[in-house]
Amino acid sequence: MILDPQIPPGRLQDKWDYYKDHCKLVSPANKRKYNILIVGTGLAGASAAATLAELGYNVKSFCIHDSPRRAHSIAAQGGINAAKNYPNDGDTIWRLFYDTIKGGDYRSREANVYRLAQISNQIIDQCVAQGVPFAREYGGLLANRSFGGAQVSRTFYARGQTGQQLLLGAYSAMSRQIAAGKIEMYTRREMLDLVVIDGKARGIIVRNLITGTIERYSGDAVLLCTGGYSNVYYLSTNARNSNVTAAWRCYKRGALFANPCFTQIHPTCIPVSGEYQSKLTLMSEGLRNDGRVWVPKQPGDRRRPDQIPESERDYFLEQKYPSFGNLVPRDVASRNAKQMTDAGKGVGETGLAVYLDFRDAINKLGRDTIVERYDNLFQMYQRITGENPYQVPMRIYPAVHYTMGGLWVDYNLMSTIPGLHVLGEANFSDHGANRLGASALMQGLADGYFIIPYTLGNYLATNDLIPIDTTHPAFEEAETAVNNNIDKLISIQGDKTVMEFHRQLGKLLWDYVGMSRHRAGLKEVINAIASLRKEYWQNVKIPSDSHTLNKNLEFAGRVADFLELGELMARDALDREESCGGHFREEYQTSEGEAKRDDEDFAYVAAWEYQGTNQSPVMHQEKLHFENVQLTQRSYK
User: Fold this and answer.
1) What are residue 227's phi and psi, to 5 degrees?
2) Catalytic residue among 107, 330, 435, 576
3) Does residue 138 fall inside a structural domain?
4) Phi then psi for 119, rounded to 5 degrees?
5) What is the tens place of the pLDDT at every residue in 295-307?
6) Across residues 136-154, what is the average pLDDT?
7) Does the predicted model carry a pTM greater than 0.85?
8) Is residue 76 in some structural domain?
């Protein structure tokens, strides 16, 4: 299979303009003839639905929650990047492009990333027009703060609730179209299969999570906006409903899954407190603007932080990376925190934490300034831990956060199944092997507001889509497959709960496909996951039945998919014999312990093709070509 990214010709700076100038269009009158199915209502899904409905398309939107406002996008805290250069500190579209390419350790497409940087400024204007309450300077201009991996301040924010405010903006635009009758909203629906007719995506099968009813929906194109798969690790910063099922069922229908091993570990999360904890809580990377990361210099030092004098504190990021200090990218900060705890310098009861200290910032700027910038985050930390971060340092530790892998898409955001477009975190994205902070919100809104209106129109205008409805045999086949899978799960009636299996899988992945990986461990975990999956289909217990609200059944289907995904992640990590970004193979590191890439052999996107149950997937490569940036060893020193 040849993976053609469909990159437009011309200079990097002109490719998106060339595309817009030459793509095929659908006239306003004809837009009303097309039905678009959008799965997911986070930033990517909500912005796409609002924009396409505003253009005249008929949109059906499917939400796994009771309201789009519950989408996990609300959990994003720190901000959204744009190259506005309001602080006049030297930022440009090129610098945002370069920082993103470098931050991803040169494992992303130049053309996609440059387009993202170009569109970034339009996103801010759009959101301000919607009334998003970005922080402002005293004179009224929008404020910016710094984030990891950049030496300029380009991150726009709304205290520590930027994702929530951006989602409310998209949701309000979406609600307008619901009221106008251009969006049909289906809440509490989970997509369980994709319907492919004549090689094109033409419909979906969903389960009504309240009644258990299996429903069919047909359309002219399907937009998948269902987020990432971090919950494969069981413990992550993602909401419990976040899952891979919709994307995974598309993978089984022929969409390639790209770079599944590229997962991001966020350095500033509240540490694990107990064995039966169900999720982890993110503390915004924005806190690293003013918080200083440190550990005791002496291993095993269990004194309270206020009893450890300045001379006995190790500000390891500031000392190791003087140019960026505490604002190194997330993968670098996470690995260094792990190194400190591995060396016995960790703090807290478990020893699996480092300090994030605001003492100096409060003394220098005053408590009122810190309250203005971060108070909601400080309150959240205090409610969870019982500790006041105005008085004692926060304790933080890396946790699984974002996934850079996902379904492969070309420049049009279209997968290897024509008509199936994938937006936001659900695609393999623009972030390479490591996402820079404040770029997830940027990508989701760029895809939904500004890219998909052009690329979807081009697809519809260049394809002959015969009318189909849900009586087509392909819908019958897909619904039967969904029902058979549900019936099989319920019939097992074993001895172990879904959560027990999920917890076992998560621990295997964290230990062997987490912050560091090595050959022997990856080979071992592939076999261990295969054995766990076999046991799952023999011994999982799901109470009740499928014809009602059944959370156990919901999670059971998702964990079954996670078990298959986990094995693919390990295969992908084993195959990629280099270190890059968040993928750290212990065999491939520099003398200073940094990730060591192999550009000659691994400068490609690994895209995996499903071959059937218990069959090894086939890996295809999209070679990455760098014509505008020089491949260098990443350095933040």
Assistant:
1) 80, -165
2) 330
3) no
4) -75, -20
5) 999 999 999 999 9
6) 94
7) yes
8) no
